[in-house]
Amino acid sequence: LLSTDVLLRPAWLRVAQPTDSACGVSLPALSSTAAAGLRELYVRSFSCSPPVLCIEAVRSFSQLHTLSIRNITVSGLGPLEGCVQLRRLDIPGSAQLVSLEGIQACTQLEYLDMNLCSGVLSLKPLSACGHLLDVDISGCVSVISLEPLSACGQLKALNLEDCIKIRSVEPLLA
Length: 174
Hints:
Number of helices: 2
Radius of gyration: 16 Å
Largest sheet: 8 strands, mixed
Shape: globular
Structural class: mainly beta
Strand content: 25-35%
Strand order of the largest sheet: 2-1-4-6-8-9-10-11
Distance between the termini: 51 Å
C-alpha cells in the first residue's frame, strides 16, 4: 500500500490506495457541500517513488484557491477547468505531465510552481492566465518558448533555471 496525506483545511486525511490501480492514487470523494466550500487542498506523498495522482475530483471544487501537490506526479490538468477561482497551483516534480491543457480556465491564477515538470512541451495554455505574478518553470527541460507568457502583463518573477531549450526571453520584453 502507498501512503499519501491529503490536507483538507482544517484537518488531515490519510489515504491509502493500492499502487497498481490505473492512476495510482485518487483524491477522496467528498460530498458536494464539502467540495463546493473547499478553498485549500494540499496533497503530499512520503513514498520513495512518487505515485501518479488523478485529480478528477477537483473538477467540483469551484471555490478552490490553492492546490498544492508535492512528490506526486499529476496525470493531467483537465479537471482544473472547474477551478475558476484557483490562485495558486504547486505541482513540482510532475515529470510525466506533458500538457497544461485545463489550466487556461484558471484565469485568476497568480502563482504557479511547476519546477521539474520535464515532460511539459508548451506553455500555451498559460496565455489565458493574465493575472500570473510568479512562475517557476525551473527544470522544465522540454519547454522551448516563453511567448505564451507575454500575455501575462502582471508577471513579476520567473524562474527559468535549467530550462535548457529556451534561447530567448525576448517575447517577454515586447
